Each structure stands twice: as C-alpha cells, then as structure tokens.
Amino acid sequence: MQPYNYTHRTGLLPLTWDDFARLSARLAELLEPSQSEIIVGLARGGLFPATLVACSLRVELYPARLTRRENDQVVRETPEWKVPISPAVAGKVVAIVDEIADSGQTLALAAAQALELGARQVITASLVAHSWADPSPQLTALVTDAFVLFPWDAQVRLDGQWAPNPEVEMGLKAQESDGA
C-alpha cells in the first residue's frame, strides 16, 4: 500500500499550536448555530480540534476511530472502523469533527454511521479541507490545497530521539519530484 498522494498538493503550510487554537475556535464559532449536542471526534488527529470545540461549546465529546492506517502506516484503500460511534448519538444533533478532509470519505462514512444510529441531524466539520474533498465537509475553518503540517505531526520519536516525521519528509520529496 502506498502512502497518500502528496504530489498534487501545492506548497507547504506548517501550522503552529497558536494556528491550531485559532482555527479550532473558528470551527466552534461555525458550529455554534447548529446547537450540536454531541461532538464526535475522529481519532487520532481529529481528537485535537474535537476536544477544543467540545470544550468551547460545552457539549459532550465521544471519540471514534475510522482509519486507513495501522501503526501510522497507510495500509488500506478505504477507511475501516476501529472504534465505532457511540449509540449516545441517537436523537441528538451531532457534529463529526476531523482535523483534515482530504478525500472526504472518512467524514462521510462517520456521518452515515451516526445517522444509522439514529442521530437527529449530523454536521460534518473539519479544521482543514482540500478543495478536492468529495464530499466536502459542511463546515471548515480553512480550505487549502497545501500540504498541511499539523503541530502534532512535525516531530516523532525514532530510535529514542525526536526526528522529523518520515511521512512529512516523503510528502515534501514527492512535491519536489512532481515540480521538477
């Protein structure tokens, strides 16, 4: 299995923790009129903005895990459920929050499961979305086609030391080779 295709991204957009806080606050502002009763955060990265949004809106947070990855490696073409959405969504207005919408598939699958579980209304939201996401999230704090580097992904532990994330380095090389 190949990692995500980074060649069609344009440039690099490194986000700081302050950028993350500002974008998460904006996402909370966008979600507030929906009067969401439950936030479902899609683990792993989506839990960062989902937690801040849930705290800002003073509503319950339920984590779920739907991913193409295992041990941080892309291993499947389509997302697979690891932790399903809580049945607590039944009868509620639910916001599904992720950190980024690339294909749009993860948010769409999560929204479908929440509706199957009886959610009264589902709003999909992401901190960042690419223009090619289809379906695109209903609410997004930032739309960009750059390679977004989230603060929690910049450095990882490798062989007992902090090092640049290998996937980030691979993505940047893919962009360089595409532009050459």
What does this structure look like?
It contains 4 helices and 12 strands. The protein is of the alpha/beta class and 180 residues long. The strands form 4 sheets. Strands 6-3-2-7-8-9 form a 6-stranded mixed sheet, sandwiched between helices. Strands 1-10 form a two-stranded parallel sheet. The chain has a two-stranded antiparallel ribbon with strand order 4-5. β4 and β5 form a beta hairpin. The two termini are 25 Å apart.
Map the helices and strands:
Elements: E1 12-14, H1 17-31, E2 38-43, H2 47-57, E3 60-67, E4 69-70, E5 73-74, E6 80-83, E7 93-101, H3 105-116, E8 121-129, E9 139-143, E10 147-149, E11 155-158, E12 161-164, H4 166-179
Parallel strand pairs: 1-10, 2-3, 2-7, 7-8, 8-9
Antiparallel strand pairs: 3-6, 4-5, 11-12
